[in-house]
Amino acid sequence: MEDQREKNIRQLIEERKQKKSFRDYFEKSIPSLLFVIASISVLTTIGIVITLLTETVEFFKRVPIVEFVTGTVLKPLSQNPEFGVLPLVMGTMLSSLIAMFVAVPIGLMTAIYLSEYASEKLRKRLKPMLELLAGIPTIVYGFFAFTFVTPILKNLIPGLEATNILSPGLVMGVMIIPMIASLSEDAMSSVPQSMREGALGLGATKLEVTRKVVIPAALSGIIASFVLGISRAIGETMIVTIASGSTKNFTVDVTQSMQTMTAYIVEVTGGDAPAGSTVYYSLYAVAMTLFIFTLLMNVLARYVSRKFREVY
Amino acid sequence: MEHVQEAQQFERKLNGRLMMNKVSKGIFFLSTLFGLVVLAVLLYRVLSEGIAYINWNFLTGKLSTNPERAGIMGAILGTFWLMIVVAPVTMFLGVATAIYLEMYAKKNKFTEFIQTNIANLAGVPSIVYGILGLTVFVRAMDLGNIVLAGGLTMSLLILPIVIVASQEALRAVPKFLEEGSLGMGATKWQTIRAVVLPVALPGILTGAILALSRAIGETAPLVVIGIPALLIPFPGSIFDKFTVLPMQIYYWTLDSSLVAEYANLAAATIIVLLVALLVLNSSAIIIRNKFTKRF
Question: Which residue ranges traverse the bilayer (chain B) (predicted)?
Answer without folding.
Answer: 27-47, 72-101, 121-140, 146-165, 194-216, 262-287
